[in-house]
Amino acid sequence: MDEPKEIKMPIAIIISHEDIAPAILQEDKAADLLKAINALTVTPDLGNEDSARLWLQEQPAPSGWFNTLEEAQAHVRRCHNPVPILPGKVIQRTREAMGMTRAEFARALGIGKTDKNRHTEIFNIEIEKINKSSGRPRVLNPKATERLMALAAEHGLNLLKDD
After folding, report:
1. Which of 155, 161, 162 is nearest to 99 (CA)?
2. pTM higher than 0.70, yes or no?
3. Domain count, the chain
4. Residues 94 and 143 in one domain
């Protein structure tokens, strides 16, 4: 017996930076999906599929343009996965590869209020200082970890490399 073929109908999931409910749009053709996306009030004028895909990538997760329902569902499931906890040596290696001070790095990750505080936070995370209240090593919060992974990707760094 042949396996059922995946039905290709483009889908867009749109979670806007604006204060509105999310939109899930599905059309028979990419051109029709582009028209539906452009009809939303939060959408800039998107001239083609590529500009729509790019704009969707800049929106909050799980926004995106998908070729099939299965692809969209897989993307949403991935968004539910926990953010990994990165070891201090990976964080330090990443910061050093970017040529940033601890304060600059913390600012880029959205950590701390002052440069002194930012420096101390990153230092404590890099050395995996034990938190007195929890008894666990200090780690980046999930949002900062996502920002670190995005910065590493922008700089072409491989976080999986062993020392």
Report:
1. 155
2. no
3. 2
4. yes
